[in-house]
Amino acid sequence: MKHRYTGKDNWFKGNTHTHTTLSDGGLTPSEVTALYAQAGYDFVAITDHWHAFRKQEMIENDNGLLVLDGIEIDGTDDSNHYYHVVALGTFDQMDVTENLSQTMDTLIHKGAYLILAHPYWSGNHMEDVKKYPFHAIEVYNHVCAHLNGKSTSLPYWDGALFQGLDLMGISADDAHLLPQHPGWKGGWIMVQAPVLSDKDILKALQDGNFYATTGPEFHSIFTDETSIRCKTSPIQRAWLVGEGYKGDRVIAAEGETLQSFSFSLDPDSPLAKSSYLRLEIEDSQGKRAWSNPL
To answer: What value does the mean pLDDT take over residues 239-267?
Structure first.
C-alpha cells in the first residue's frame, strides 16, 4: 500500500482550473487571484484556453496567493477524439493546432502536469484516458454541473485505476466568472506539502499527496497493511472503494455524524486483493470528497 498521506505536512487549498480575460473568463488575472485569496484559498492555477499563462503577466499579486502557470488546450487528436486538457507548468505560447497530438507531444516533452479535464462533458471514452500519460483526471468539475449536469467522472477514474493507471483525482471549479457561467468555490483540492511554493505544490501533485473535495475535509489518513484510519470534518457516510463490487462502508447513526472511522483489511479478503483502493466521504449536504488511490 502506498502511504501517500503522511500527516506531517500542511494542507493547502487550491483550484487547478481557472479562466480569466486572457481567454473566455470574466475577470482579469489580478481580479481572479484577489477573489480566491479573499475566499481563503492558498493557490490557484491560471489555465486559459490556448494561452500559456506566466505569472509575470500579472499587474499585481500582493494578496499572498500562490499563482501557478498553466494552460488549457482542446481539440481533436490524430484519432479524431476530442479532448480538453489542463497542463500545469511554464510553457512558451502555443498556437491552436489542427491536430491536438502535436501539442500534447510538446507538453509531454516540457514535463507538464497533465490533467484530463471533464471527460464526461467532453464525451471521452476509456481509451482516451489511456492514450496520453495523464497525471490526473477531473473527477468533479463545477462549471459542468452548471452547464449540463455532467460534473462527475468517477467511472473513468475507477476504470483507469482497475487497468493499472496510477491516476489522481482532481476537483476543480473551471471558473469563468461570467453571468452565464457564474459558479466558483464549488470544487477544489487540498494539497499536503511542507511549504507553499511552486516547487512543493507541484511535487505534491506529482506524488498524489492531495485529495479532491466539494466540501468535506480529510484531516488525516493513516494506512498500514491491515487497516485504514481517518479523521474528517463531520460526515454522514464513508466508503472504501475497490474494483468492481468490492468495497466497504461506514454510516453515521440517525441524527449523528462521524468524525473518525476505520476500515480493517484482512489480508486474505477480496477487498484487500483489489487492484486499487480509494476513500470517499459525504456530508449532510450531499457534498463529497475523494482520496487518491492508497
So the answer is: 96
